[in-house]
């Protein structure tokens, strides 16, 4: 066994009631609580980011391709699906999904209420699994072999306002000249917690929108695109799509379309980063304090070791090992507390949230094991570097003075 490690383990074992022993427990507790707080904070931050982004993406994808137009209303300029980018999007290295959509303003009418909405039409090329997590009742649109589906997917807010449920029928008036109406069937109810979608968007068949607009089956309002890696959206996916698009097409990225939400998520990340820095400073200060106290309580031991021929670095290693042992103990407790809390929240949803303000009904947790490992290594690395500072005092201790020290 390493001699310095052996001595470090023995330090403090015979002085259970000493002042340094009390401070040691405080230092271990501060590291444990600090690391636990960091893990919980990052777990919640990653959970918020992943869930909010997933809800946004399920409605809008990562990018929108539309036809260039000066029209700012919901009445879209039609774009053909007989284009190279639509037919051969599988050949694009950064594209995961690409599908057509079309939107149409309409009014839902019951015997007692009316409500203005946007009907977003999706076709068979849409991957319904992308939206499945949002559905709380019923199912996604069922497409017939011929014609278009009469199914609608409405939000829980709209269902509550109009007192509708799965299986009900509703009359939809489409705003145009002349106005048209259709009697449609409620097939499912969704909930995202995002007012922009829940208050306004109803999902239906793109064939219905085409029929109302008198469009051919080869026309759509635009394409929605999912990139293979959202982190490479701006650097790789956008340039690739721009090169593949025709001159009359326009590309809009979701980070620009929902700039307020992504700015909010970035602000949360900055706040957690500041919080992490403060916790590491406090933990480092605590370890410096405890090592200084331990050294001052063992000045005679340092003097005797120097008199026996031990070098300054050899003695410093004893206290550095002791500091690392305390750090490891605190980190072990911190992981147990932090990850334990995250597991309770992940499986049992013990802390609820108001969906009106936070887009979800409970505090989300995301298991980013790479980040968890990084937080542990960062905490250990910062404290290990800080431990070098208080041990410099050993170099100033003289054996003759230290042995007489009382």
How would you describe this structure to a colleague?
There is one protein chain. By secondary structure, the chain is of the alpha+beta class. It folds into two domains: 3-55 and 261-404, no CATH class; 69-247, no CATH class. The chain is built from 14 helices and twelve strands. Strands 1, 3, 4, 5, 6, 7, 8, 9, 11 and 12 form a ten-stranded mixed β-sheet that branches. A hairpin with a 5-residue loop joins strand 7 (169-174) and strand 8. Helix 2 (19-60) crosses helix 11 and helix 2 (19-60) packs antiparallel against helix 13. The longest helix is centred in the N-terminal third of the chain and has 42 residues, at 19-60. The protein starts with a helix and ends with a helix. The mean pLDDT is 87.
Which keywords apply here?
406 residues, 14 helices, alpha+beta, elongated, ten-stranded mixed sheet, single chain
* Mean model confidence by pLDDT: 87
Radius of gyration using CA atoms only: 31 Å
Order of helices and strands: HHEEHEEEEHEEHEHEEHEHHHHHHH
Largest sheet: 10 strands, mixed
Count of extended strands: 12
Q: So what's the overall shape? A: elongated
* Terminal CA distance: 32 Å
* Low-pLDDT sequence parts: none
Helix residue percentage: 40-55%
Structural class: alpha+beta
Strand content: 15-25%
Compute the number of structural domains: 2
Summed up, the helix count is 14
């Amino acid at each position: 066994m390493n001699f310095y490690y052996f001595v470090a383990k023995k330090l403090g074992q015979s002085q259970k009631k000493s002042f340094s022993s009390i401070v040691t427990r405080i230092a271990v507790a501060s590291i444990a609580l600090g690391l636990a707080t960091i893990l919980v904070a990052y777990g919640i931050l990653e959970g918020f980011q992943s869930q909010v982004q997933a809800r946004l993406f399920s409605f809008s994808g990562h990018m929108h391709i539309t036809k260039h137009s000066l029209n700012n209303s919901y009445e879209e300029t039609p774009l053909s699906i007989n284009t190279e980018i639509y037919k051969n999007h599988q050949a694009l290295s950064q594209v995961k999904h690409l599908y057509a959509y079309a939107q149409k303003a309409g009014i839902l009418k019951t015997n007692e209420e009316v409500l203005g909405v946007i009907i977003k039409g999706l076709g068979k090329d849409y991957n319904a699994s992308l939206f499945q997590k949002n559905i709380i009742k019923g199912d996604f649109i069922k497409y017939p072999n011929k014609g278009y589906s009469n199914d609608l997917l409405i939000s829980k807010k709209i269902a509550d306002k109009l007192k509708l449920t799965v299986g009900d029928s509703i009359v939809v008036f489409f705003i145009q000249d002349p106005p048209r109406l259709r009697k449609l069937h409620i097939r499912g109810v969704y909930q995202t917690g995002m007012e922009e979608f829940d208050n306004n968007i109803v999902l239906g068949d793109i064939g219905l929108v085409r029929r109302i607009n008198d469009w051919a089956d080869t026309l759509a309002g635009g394409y929605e695109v999912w990139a293979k890696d959202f982190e490479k959206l701006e650097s790789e996916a956008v340039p690739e799509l721009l090169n593949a698009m025709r001159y009359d097409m326009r590309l809009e990225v979701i980070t620009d379309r929902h700039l307020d939400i992504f700015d909010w998520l970035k602000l949360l990340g900055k706040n957690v980063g500041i919080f992490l820095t403060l916790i590491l400073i406090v933990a480092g200060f605590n370890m410096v304090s405890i090592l200084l106290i331990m050294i001052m309580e063992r000045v005679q031991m340092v003097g005797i070791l120097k008199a026996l021929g031990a070098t300054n670095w050899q003695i410093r290693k004893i206290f550095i090992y002791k500091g690392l042992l305390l750090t490891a103990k605190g980190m072990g407790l911190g992981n147990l507390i932090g990850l334990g809390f995250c597991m309770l929240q992940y499986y049992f949803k013990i802390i609820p949230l108001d969906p009106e303000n936070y887009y979800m009904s409970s505090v989300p947790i995301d298991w980013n094991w790479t980040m968890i490992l990084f937080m542990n290594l960062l905490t250990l690395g910062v404290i290990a570097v800080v431990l070098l500072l208080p041990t410099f005092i050993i170099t100033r201790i003289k054996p003759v003075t230290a042995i007489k020290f009382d």
